[in-house]
Amino acid sequence: MAAARAAADEWPEFRGPTGQGISPATDLPVEWSSTTNVAWKIAVPGSGWSSPVIGGGTVFLTTGVPGAGDTVSLRAMAFAAATGA
Questions:
Q1: CA 61 from centroid of its chain's CA atoms
Q2: Which stretch of DSSP H or E encloses residue 4?
Q3: What three-state secondary structure class fits 1?
Q4: pLDDT reported for residue 4
Q5: Which of 24, 49, 50, 51: disulfide with 4, CB 3.0–4.6 Å?
Q6: What is the rounded distance in angstroms from the CA atom of residue 80 to the CA atom of residue 27?
Q7: Using an 8 Å Cβ cutoff, are 79 and 57 in contact?
Q8: How far apart are CA 46 and CA 53, in angstroms?
Q9: pLDDT beneath 70, residues of the chain
Q10: Going by C-beta distance under 8 Å and a sequence separation of 6 or more, which residues neighbour residue 41?
């Protein structure tokens, strides 16, 4: 079970470790709301431009933030998977 949990903690690319969108995690919640089964939330500036990935206990994502004129600045963001810090 520990090996399955460790594999579930890593999501290194879009659609997961095998590219099939399948996770070995078990006993996952099947209902969500703004407060139910949510570990943490954080405001992300701009427009999300990626599927989040998880590695080494960190959630990584990219976002596009409006720049000068019609430009967009691409930003990489990282959050602690356990807390959102």
A1: 7
A2: helix 2-8
A3: coil
A4: 41
A5: 24
A6: 22
A7: no
A8: 18
A9: 1-8
A10: 84
Q: Which two tokens stand for residue 22?
A: 């399948």
Q: What is the pLDDT of residue 33?
A: 92
**Tokens found for residue 28:** 């996952």
pLDDT (0 to 100) of residue 26: 87
CA dist., res. 7 & res. 85, Å (int): 22
Task: Tell how far CA 39 is from the center of its chain.
Answer: 12
Residue 60, both tokens: 């990584």
DSSP character at residue 72: E
Q: What is the pTM of this model?
A: 0.78
Q: Which tokens go with 47?
A: 């427009």
DSSP letter, residue 8: H
pLDDT value, residue 25 = 84
Concatenate the DSSP letters of all residues of 11-71 into one string.
B-STT-TTSSS-----S--S---SSTT--------SEE-S--EEETTEEEEEEEEE-STT-
Which stretch of DSSP H or E encloses residue 7? helix 2-8
